[in-house]
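Team,

Forwarding the record for the chain on the shared tracking sheet. I've put the sequence and predicted structure together so nobody has to dig through attachments.
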Amino acid sequence: MNWEKELAVRAGLINEGLDRYLPPVSLYPPSIHEAIRYSLFAGGKRLRGALTLATAEAFGTEQSRILPAACALEMLHTYSLIHDDLPAMDDDDYRRGKPTCHRIFGEATAILAGDALLTLTFETLCHLKQDFRPGLVVRVIEEVATAAGTRGLIGGQVADLESEGRTVTPELLEYIHLHKTGALFRAAVRTGALLAGADERVLSAFTDYSVAFGLAFQITDDILDLTGSEVLLGKPVKRDLAKQKATYPAFFGLERARELAAYQVRKALQSLEIFGAEAEFLREAARYLLYRES
């Protein structure tokens, strides 16, 4: 499998869906819709949405039926990035090689653009009612809402901010990574599985995969901040080090962090042993983490 090509195909489908679900720039007031589209189409692999599609595809579910969920996860992810880049948070001027939303549109509009994407996430999930029973749609909405809130992304972000410049325990470090980054990967994979009708045994396997995948992704992200190329990453490197953030390389050292990332990738692959070729995209996604450059 040419995994990157397969990812690009899914990304193209998601981008088409996002264009349909988003309000047009011409809708008044145009400034907020321009800011939303600027951030959402500023690049990105659409990895979370692709994992949603791929998980459902493993059961033979048509992509078009799952597309609202995949698009919603990408909206939620972009909202988190807009807010993460704000001066009150990580204070980043560049994202994916382009000026961040607040640098182009101002802080107030950037905050509102993030807020709008968060609400659009759940508006978009409601499109699932066309193909799925109401009870299942509600369960998916609950899954995504939990991932976005204080038991997920926001909880991890708060813990991350409060840990800057402080000594952390391995348990707290894992909590930050599992929630700040891992929660959306978990929701992406579980949403695809739920919509495809996975039973509890299969859902548990996919959950184990997503947890290990999320940890491996963030550990490699920490490593790239130290060793990666600013050109490939599209943002300055060594920012975590300068801010004394809680990262795996800072706590364990670079080589041990690499070992831990590889260990989580192995766990992700092991969780998929009950599946056959239908889960190959997910396997390749996990392997990709060990050689990603951006």
